[in-house]
Amino acid sequence: LTFYRVEYENALIEMTKTYCDRIRQNGQATQSVPAYLRRFLKIFDAESNRVKAYLNASTLPRLQRCCVRYLLVGDVDGGNGATRRGFDVDMLRDHQTGLMSSLNREDEAEIGIFFQCFDIAERFGFTDGIVTSAEIFGEWIRAKGAALRRRRLKRLSALKTRAGKKYKSPMSDATYVADALSIYRKSLEFRRVQFQNKAIFQKSMNASLEDVLNTSWGRGETSTAILLVEYVHRLLGGKDAKGVRLTSQQSKATCM
User: Fold this and answer.
1) Separation CA 219–CA 87 (nearest Å)
2) DSSP helix/strand/coil, 67
3) Alpha-carbon distance 65 to 163, whole Å?
């Protein structure tokens, strides 16, 4: 086994490193991030199957780690002990085709590919990708919440303009709460399915939703907590946001 490792396995790993480096450099310039990640998965599976079919089992984890290291992470050693941001974080943060783009388009297949690749990377000790993915997920939730806040503030401003000195803060806002629940439901779906209930994504989701629901509307305005209570009270009374009576099944589905 020592002869095999010295004379063959080490050379194979070095050739794989060179091969993966070349693919990464070409992929950076010519492919979208999701397309590149799909290519990574094909190479990772093909190299793994080749080892399983023809080589000693001891080669498998080394070759797989090499693929992950040089296709997903890149050279993070900046020299003189310094480090730079890895290729994995650059891909995730890509403004055009990174994870945020896939989340904004709610492209479930692409989101799943991001998770699959960086979940593999984490298994080999490269954690920046999965940590950054969870951070971006939280940022997406906060961005959705910020857009929701702007829409409500615009409605409140219009109410104040019409009412003048007679303005009183609305005690309920079924539209706002229904939209907030929509953000929660989509976030929960992504966390359960695309991010496979991984704890770091649950933590990011919970913290981000807490920030969204802790929104302050300004002095004298009804708090979000009261808006939520009034919304539930309306549903328990069997009516939707427009006052239309609901069946018990519809009421339950609206609260979920």
Assistant:
1) 46
2) helix
3) 65
pTM (2 d.p.): 0.87
**Angle at the Cα of 110 from the Cα atoms of 106 and 113, rounded to 5 degrees:** 140
Distance from C-alpha of 29 to C-alpha of 94, rounded to nearest angstrom: 13
The token duo for 242 is 């427009």
Q: H or E element: which one contains 54? A: helix 33-54
Do residues 107 and 122 make contact, with C-beta atoms less than 8 angstroms apart? no
The CA distance from 23 to 46, in Å, is 15
Model pLDDT for residues 129-164, shown as the tens digit of each residue: 999 999 999 999 999 999 999 999 999 999 999 999
Helix (H, G, I), strand (E, B) or coil at 98: coil
Among 236, 241, 210, smallest CA distance to 224 is for 210
CA torsion, ordered 17, 20, 21, 22, to nearest 10 deg? 130
DSSP 79-96: ETTEE---HHHHHHT-TT
Asked if pLDDT for residue 73 goes beyond 60, the answer is yes
